[in-house]
TrEMBL record:
<keyword id="KW-0249">Electron transport</keyword>
<keyword id="KW-0813">Transport</keyword>
<keyword id="KW-0479">Metal-binding</keyword>
<dbReference type="InterPro" id="IPR002323">
    <property type="entry name" value="Cyt_CIE"/>
</dbReference>
<keyword id="KW-0349">Heme</keyword>
<dbReference type="Pfam" id="PF13442">
    <property type="entry name" value="Cytochrome_CBB3"/>
</dbReference>
<feature type="domain" description="Cytochrome c">
    <location>
        <begin position="39"/>
        <end position="112"/>
    </location>
</feature>
<dbReference type="GO" id="GO:0020037">
    <property type="term" value="F:heme binding"/>
</dbReference>
<dbReference type="GO" id="GO:0009055">
    <property type="term" value="F:electron transfer activity"/>
</dbReference>
<protein>
    <submittedName>
        <fullName>Cytochrome c5</fullName>
    </submittedName>
</protein>
<keyword id="KW-0408">Iron</keyword>
<dbReference type="InterPro" id="IPR036909">
    <property type="entry name" value="Cyt_c-like_dom_sf"/>
</dbReference>
<dbReference type="GO" id="GO:0005506">
    <property type="term" value="F:iron ion binding"/>
</dbReference>
<dbReference type="InterPro" id="IPR009056">
    <property type="entry name" value="Cyt_c-like_dom"/>
</dbReference>
């Protein structure tokens, strides 16, 4: 009896796992090298955000880790922007980009909270 329940349960778990996107290793690999396509934005990202958001050990949500970003995005862009500007937890004010505009932060957040579709 139990056996008959176990197999479908396992299948469902496996399928659910697939829908959660990339596995941890793929995610860390992506985060370690990802760059915004726009060169100016890439420059800022490389200078300011990448040091923390490209590796898991800093406590920062990883670039491309949509599951980690989702609850943060739910706060709304205004809150996210004020957290970046004021500093938040382990993140210093302005995420170390003192001359960044709100619109640049917004684009950086959009880039960092997104994992690219498989080609
Ligand atoms: C010195 C490390 C560091 C740098 C540099 C840094 N961050 Fe962060 N960031 C963090 C950490 C740590 C958190 C998580 C803080 C927490 O949840 O306690 C975070 C969280 C965030 C959040 C989510 C805030 C929230 O309300 O949940 C945003 C947005 C963000 N960073 C954007 C940026 C941007 C944009 C840059 C570059 C301009 C940047 N960060 C640079 C460490 C950093």
């Amino acid at each position: 009896m139990l056996k008959h329940l176990l197999l479908p349960a396992l299948l469902i778990l496996t399928l659910a796992g697939c829908q959660q996107g990339p596995d941890r290793a793929a995610l860390e690999q992506y985060a370690s090298t990802a760059m915004p396509a726009d060169t100016e934005l890439a420059d800022i990202y490389q200078r300011s955000c990448q040091a923390c958001h490209s590796r898991g050990s800093t406590g920062a949500p990883l670039t491309g880790d949509e599951a980690a970003w989702e609850p943060r995005l739910e706060q709304g862009m205004d809150t996210l922007l004020s957290h970046v500007v004021d500093g938040f937890g382990g993140m210093p004010p302005y995420g170390l980009c003192m001359d960044c505009s709100a619109s640049e932060f917004e684009h950086l957040i959009a880039f960092m909270s997104h994992y690219p579709e498989a080609p």
